[in-house]
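Treating backbone geometry as a discrete language has practical consequences that deserve illustration. Part of our work consisted of pairing the sequence of a single chain with a tokenised description of its backbone. We regard such an encoding as a compact summary of how the chain folds. The amino acid sequence and the backbone structure tokens for this protein are reproduced below.
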Amino acid sequence: MNRTHTDQRRLNVAAATLDGARAMPRIWRGAWAALAQVSVLAVAPALVTLTETAGIVHAVWLAIAIWIAWGALSRVGAARSNVTAWAEGLGPGGLQFGKVELRLLAALLLNLIFIAMILTVLVLAALVVAGMAELDVAAIQARDWSAAGSPWRLGLVCVVGALTVWVPLIFVIRLGLFSQATVGRGHAVSLNTLGIAQGSFWPLALLFALIAAAVVALVALQVSAGVAGRIAWTVGLIWIAGPFAAGALGAAYRQLEYWTPQGGAR
């Protein structure tokens, strides 16, 4: 790792957000068929009654379609130009399932295993601390905190519980650009994503919060609408939130990346 390049990298959240919005038309042009496939499959249960077997087939197909679409969105969002995206094997309208999608799957599985290992250790530590604190379970269930145990023991358990949530969240955010890194570097990138995000945790957290806010807003509109409205907002969620997220994360990756697939520092 080139420390000079690493130390100079900082994420500009405003620029990444604006670039993400500007990239949406380019992403629509590159991945329209993949987004259309996900849209049709997502609204199908609201229009057609599915049998149990058909429901299982539908769920599997939808999961594959979402992965194909995210592969296409990541390719176009992380690319510096449409030429780069097509050179990486983007299919017509974003319909493809090739090496990039398999690399993304491998990177995702490696990241999930890593997070699961950390979470397991933290949960075991929390259970040990909770056992050593000897708190009154019945009092806790009754929410009688004065009878549950001494304040310092309650505080210790709360701190360990907070760490059990906070530490995995830190790694989830710092590993959040693994899709873009996998596309950009040309191989599965899992824990090496930590180096890309180095020094930009809080800006990345803010960027993910903005993306989550957009998703929550669209989901809230979807839930509060009628049948036709739910269908419309479901399609809107797919065509707005997905491309925006891919565009913003792609812009963030381009700002933070310091290494080329050939191994040379930028």
